Amino acid sequence: MNAVKLLALVPIIGIFVGAIFFNRVTPIVLGMPFLLFWLVMCTVLSSPIMWIVFKFDPNRKEDELL
Amino acid sequence: MNIALVIIFIVLVLAILLGIQAKKGKDMNLEQWSVGGRGFGTIFVFLLMAGEIYTTFTFLGGSGWAYGKGGPTYYIISYSAVAYIMSYFLLPRIWKYAKKHNLLSQSDFFVQKYNSPYLGVFVSLIGIVGMVPYFITQLKGLGLIVSQASYGSISPTFAIWIGAIAVTIYVMVSGIHGSAWTAVVKDILILAVVLFLGIYLPIHYYGGLGSMFEAIHAKDANFLALPATGQSPSWFISTVLLTAFGFYMWPHTFGSTYTAKNANTFRRNAIIMPLYSLVLLFVFFVGFAAILQVPGLTGSDTDLALLKISIATFDPWVIGIIGSAGVLTALVPGSLILMSSATLLSKNIFKVIKPTATNKQIEKIAKYMVPVVALVTVYYTINGGETIVALLLMGYSLVTQLFPALLFSLMKNNFVTKYGAFAGMATGVATVAYVTIANKSVGSLLPFLPQVIKDLNVGIVALIVNLFFLVIVSILTRSISVSKQTAVHLEK
């Protein structure tokens, strides 16, 4: 298990933390209620995070050849 | 015949033709038919997997939840994000194992891992009992869409028949190749429709997204957040987790992972999918926009929110395009479900009962099972009463019971025996059935617990029961199967 993979936990924890601590409507950010904005941000963030995990994935190269 | 209907029928005919032509030049053996010869690149796999989140349920149900429930709707984008992150680690392993052993169905996976064809029969039965109600919701949605878009001139029943026949034809001819091609049209249409509606409606009616949410907030201060009890934060977290666990446990979703050419396909998908899934946000915006514009929908009528506000806003030809997108969102998952159930019935149930059956026979039976499953589904869609509603609620929880045995089977040293896997699934499924039919919640089962725990999704209880029996029975039966297990491990 390489440590970079732990990054994948960040958005998941973000979602759970958000539901508990940011369960509020205001302030409205980017047109969205705050909780929705927070959850959307976690989702958006998961994309570059998984990209980083992919870049450092030791299995990536060998699987490309299959 | 109004213009909306004409457009829906043209799109439907195009989808059938496209589905049929997908067969061209391919010898349709079972491997081509059910897993596309394991030759699909990133885009097709992406679209098949994306088909899973843009179903009629999300199209009508997502906007309906936003309209009727508000804040709790956010769980839909959150669980798909969690599911995609999990998929990065889960799917490449499943795919590699499936490729190595030439697996065609989800049950094949369990048969191979636990070295038990009977476990395969059991997994198939759980899958079919879970999938058929799922298909019923898709057909119900299709019926609603067409009858609304025809301004009442076509009955839902007639629309359901047409939809079921269309999907049966192209599944029988082209198998998963047909689903992949219709998925292309579906995703282009649905993207266009959802983005347009989700951007246009808030601006048109409220002057913008922010002012729309402010207007809703002014009317009901808590509607756009999670309530303090019921669908509270603890409900939210437990539901996101449970649904993410179940996400890839549907036989048709699990099976469509086999179509990929390369394990990295799933890793790339895990990077793009979260962004793509945000299109769902725009579905929610439509539902939110409808709250103050078409008020008064309650109960299951909230599912009509998207269609009602569209009909109130646009000309019939726009309704035709929205309706077509809606119809396709039912057909793509519908076709995958038909194909998976037919493959399970033939390969994982019939073949076990009659081991002498040849591959050609299995192939034939799989194809003949397609209209059979379609007919049963149409029958229940049209005649189903209260029991169907219970089944629908159960479907997702049922397939989630396969998750523990799957997860352990991916580990290097799997301590779970086939008896343990069976015991876990059986007790989990029984708990789901009891809890759903008796309409229990964690609160009613264990009333002495604090509210935070009472609000947990009741599916958690079934999963804990499942895990408990899986572990206990595995330990008790370890000695019986330890010699077999090592043999299997050496083989891997």
The chain-level structural class of chain A is: mainly alpha
What is the helix content of chain A? 55-70%
Strand content of chain B: under 5%
- The helix/strand order of chain A is HHH
Q: Mind explaining what this structure looks like?
A:
- The complex is a heterodimer of chains A (66) and B (492).
- Chain A has helices spanning 9-21, 34-55, 59-64.
- Chain A is mostly helical and 66 residues long.
- Chain A has one domain.
- Chain A is elongated, with a radius of gyration of 16 Å.
- The relative contact order of chain A is 0.18.
- The mean pLDDT of chain A is 89.
- With 492 residues, chain B is mainly alpha-helical.
- Chain B folds into two domains: 3-388, Sodium/glucose cotransporter (Up-down Bundle), CATH 1.20.1730; 401-491, no CATH class.
- Chain B contains 24 helices and no strands.
- In chain B, 60% of the residues are buried.
- The chains are: A mainly alpha (66), B mainly alpha (492).
- At the A-B interface, α1, α2 and α3 of A face α5, α10, α11 and α13 of B.
- Chain B: The chain crosses the membrane at residues 6-22, 43-67, 73-95, 116-136, 156-176, 188-207, 232-250, 271-297, 317-345, 365-382, 388-407, 419-437, 457-476.
Write the layout of secondary structure elements.
The complex is a heterodimer of chains A (66) and B (492).
Chain A: H1 9-21, H2 34-55, H3 59-64
Chain B: H1 3-21, H2 30-35, H3 42-51, H4 56-68, H5 75-100, H6 106-114, H7 117-149, H8 156-174, H9 176-206, H10 209-219, H11 233-247, H12 251-256, H13 264-277, H14 279-293, H15 305-313, H16 316-353, H17 359-383, H18 386-400, H19 403-409, H20 418-437, H21 442-445, H22 451-454, H23 459-476, H24 478-491
Helix pairs in contact in B: 1-8, 1-9, 1-16, 3-9, 3-13, 4-14, 4-16, 5-11, 5-13, 6-7, 7-8, 7-16, 7-17, 7-18, 7-20, 8-9, 8-16, 8-17, 9-10, 9-14, 9-16, 10-14, 11-18, 14-15, 16-17, 18-20, 20-23
